[in-house]
Amino acid sequence: MHRIETVTVQDSPMEVFLFEPEGEGPHPGIVLAQHIPVGHTGIENDTFTLKAAERFAENGFAVAAPFIFHWWPKEAEMGLKRDEFRDDWTVLDLQASYDLLAAQANVDSNRIGIVGHCWGGRVSWLGACHNPEYKACAVFYGGRIKLPLGPGTPPAIDLAGNINCPVIGLFGNEDENPSPADVDDLAAALSAAGVPHTFHRYDGAGHAFQNFPSEEKYRHEASEDAWDKVLAFLNKTLN
What we know:
Helix content: 25-40%
Number of helices: 6
Radius of gyration: 16 Å
Largest sheet: 8 strands, mixed
CATH architecture: 3-Layer(aba) Sandwich
Number of domains: 1
CATH topology: Rossmann fold
Order of helices and strands: EEEHEHHEHEEHEH
Number of strands: 8
């Protein structure tokens, strides 16, 4: 079960889907950055993000999943939203989501991490670069981390030195965005910045290998292993 709260970010209303685990808490929290599936108009139609949030909640984490594409009409083409995406707007979205989650009575504000898949994997990296209060960051096959998005913003990889928490990365070796060479560059940036990190790479898996609604992309064995690893990481860093 979840509920939806609306926060205002620079005069634009943003829906945040909140998922609560059982028990009184206080619980550790996760800001979950959604992926960018073709054709979806909102988180309410995004089966993968809803199920991922539910699974985290079932494992004891309070979850806030913001609709970071609120800057455009829901019916607008996703290609337009992707092309006009701005990191400066997204940083504001993530901070508003973090503040909302941290203010919940059943959430321990000192134990909040950020997680994202695909486009959201890049967003989770970005969020950790701009909020030193995160205690954990998980990047599932985040592409375009080496690119700037929006006017006057640096490539997200260049901000690695701002990350103040451990990072886990989960990638498919058949992915092209990020490619294995891109993943090497991400690891090198974290190493150069002294950021503790662990990357897991899966043979026979490409991009979005956890995306079960897509039979073409989903790889069950890799997905379940990645779930085990990310939950163990979050339990260690947030509990």
